[in-house]
Design goal:
The protein is mainly α. The protein has a single domain, classed as TerB-like (Orthogonal Bundle), CATH 1.10.3680.10. It is about 75% helix and about 0% strand. Helix 1 crosses helix 2, helix 2 runs parallel beside helix 6 and helix 6 crosses helix 8. This is TerB family tellurite resistance protein. Pfam families: TerB.
C-alpha cells in the first residue's frame, strides 16, 4: 500500500508549499478514505449519497481541492479492494492521529453510514469494529453517532420546511 501511495503523490499531486503535506499525511488521507469506502460498501451497495459524504469528509478534514479529493478517493478505492483487512489502514491512523482526530474519523464513518438514511446492521458493526481498532472509547463512538444523526435530522427538517413555503 505505501509504495502505491508514494507513487501516486509523486506522479499526480504536488505537496503544498508550506511543507505540511508530507508522505505520512498523504498516507493518512488514503487510509482514511479507504476506511470510508469500506463503510460505503458494507451493505454491498454503492450509493451516491455515501460517496458524496466521503468526498465532503475528505475535503473537509484534509483541506484538499475537489480534484485532489477525487484522486485520493479513486486510489483509496483501489487500495480498499486490494486490502485483506482494516488493520493496515487503522494501524497507520493509530500511529499518526491523536485521539481527537481518531474520533473525527469515527464521525466520518457515521456520516457515510447514515448518508442514505438507512443503517444496515453490517454498517453499524463495521463502524464499531473500526472504532475499536482505533481505540476510540464507546462513549465517543455513541456521541459521534448522535451528532451525525442530529445533523442529518436537522438538515432533513430544514429541507422539509422549505417545501411547505
Amino acid at each position: 500500500m505505501i509504495e502505491a501511495i508514494r507513487r501516486f503523490y509523486e506522479e499526480r499531486m504536488k505537496p503544498g508549499g508550506d511543507g505540511g503535506d508530507d508522505p505520512p499525511a498523504h498516507r493518512l488521507q488514503l487510509a482514511t478514505a479507504a476506511l470510508l469506502i469500506e463503510m460505503a460498501q458494507a451493505d454491498n451497495q454503492r450509493h451516491s449519497m455515501e460517496f458524496q459524504a466521503i468526498h465532503d469528509g475528505i475535503t473537509e478534514v484534509f483541506d484538499l481541492s475537489p480534484e485532489e479529493t477525487a484522486e485520493v478517493i479513486e486510489l483509496a478505492d483501489q487500495e480498499a479492494h486490494e486490502a485483506t483487512d482494516h488493520f493496515e489502514f487503522t494501524h497507520l491512523i493509530n500511529e499518526q492521529f491523536d485521539y481527537a482526530r481518531k474520533c473525527q474519523v469515527v464521525e466520518l464513518l457515521w456520516r457515510v453510514c447514515l448518508a442514505d438514511s438507512e443503517m444496515d446492521r453490517y454498517e453499524e458493526q463495521l463502524v464499531r469494529k473500526i472504532a475499536e481498532l482505533l481505540h476510540v472509547e464507546h462513549g465517543e463512538f455513541i456521541a459521534a453517532k448522535l451528532r451525525v444523526q442530529r445533523e442529518y435530522s436537522a438538515n432533513s427538517h430544514f429541507s422539509d420546511y422549505e417545501d411547505y413555503e
